[in-house]
Design brief:
Helices cover 43% and strands 12% of the residues. By secondary structure, it is α/β, with parallel strands linked by helices. It has one domain: Rossmann fold. It has a five-stranded parallel sheet, sandwiched between helices. Helix 1 packs parallel to helix 11. The N and C termini lie far apart (48 Å). The structure holds adenosine monophosphate and magnesium ion.
Length: 268
């Protein structure tokens, strides 16, 4: 398996050591990477079909990033062409009063994938150790123990047959500036601009610390984190597609055998 961007369980992540501009995993030109990406995308389509047909495995893809990190665009591009019947996207926003009245994993567990399904989390339970920590929405004693809950929760999902892949889309602060300016100036993107995003940007260093802790403390063999260099979208998409395809291929899935002997069937 390709593990260039995988966070080794137990290792200490320092994000300044992870280059958001890296494209070194692909030896070729940008045009070549796009061709390679198209191939991976077709392969992903076929593998998802097989996952759905076999209806045995479950796959959970977690996407986390700073604002403008490219979560929406990964969902659109990496999964383009994949049969929507077997894939769903769950976007986690600030919790509702009903959600807040439960434990923080309650709303998340309800959306975990069933057999044959791929579920993509656009943000996730990790917000409960990221924004919640940075904005001090709960005291330290409360968020501190969540890393342990999260690891155990994911272990349970994995034990029950879920392949879990977690991607942190690593952009630089300068790239975020560029993207935010783009949002401001593009009439088709302006709607995404929220004034609160500027406050989050001001808290960049606090977020980096919170991300470093989450990535260090919750990357496991059964639910690894990948830190994907994401300043270059074409490379980011290729890298994520490659990891997804390899993970699906390693499941050695088979089309199910029909329950009846069909050799004598003739369609009139
Ligand atoms: P967006 O993904 O841009 O639509 O924004 C969703 C917002 O919901 C982000 O600001 C998240 O940080 C916020 N959010 C998601 N989960 C939580 C949570 N558990 N607690 C507080 N805010 C959250
Ligand atoms: Mg946003």
């Amino acid at each position: 398996m390709w593990d260039r961007y995988r966070v080794r369980p137990g290792s200490r992540v320092r994000l300044r050591e992870w280059d958001p501009d890296d494209t070194g995993g692909f030896q070729g030109t940008r045009v070549e990477v796009e061709t390679a990406f198209a191939k991976l995308n077709h392969r992903l389509e076929a593998l998802q079909e097989l996952l759905y047909a076999e209806s045995k495995h479950k796959m959970l893809v977690v996407l986390q990033a700073m604002d403008c990190g490219g979560k929406d665009s990964v969902i659109r591009r990496v999964f383009q062409g994949v049969n929507p019947q077997g894939v769903s996207v769950m976007s986690f926003k600030a919790p509702t009063p009903r959600e807040l009245s439960h434990d923080y994993l309650w709303r998340v567990h309800a959306h975990a994938p069933g057999r044959g399904q791929i579920v993509i989390f656009n943000r996730s339970h990790y917000e409960d150790v990221l924004i919640v920590r940075v904005h001090k929405l709960v005291p330290r004693s409360v968020w501190e123990r969540r890393y342990r809950h999260i690891v155990e929760f994911e272990r349970m999902l994995a034990d029950e047959g879920t392949t879990i892949l977690k991607f942190y889309l690593n952009i630089s602060k300068a790239e975020q500036k560029k993207q935010l300016e783009d949002r401001l100036n593009d009439p088709t993107k302006k709607w995404k601009f929220r004034i609160e995003d500027l406050e989050e940007r001001r808290l960049w260093p606090q977020y980096m610390t919170a991300y470093e802790d989450a990535l260090s403390r919750t990357s496991t063999d059964f639910a690894p984190w990948y830190i994907i260099p994401s300043n270059h979208r074409w490379y980011r998409n290729w890298a994520i597609a490659r990891i997804l395809v390899e993970a699906l291929e390693s499941l050695n899935m088979q089309y199910p055998q029909p329950s009846n002997d069909l050799s004598a069937v003739r369609i009139k």
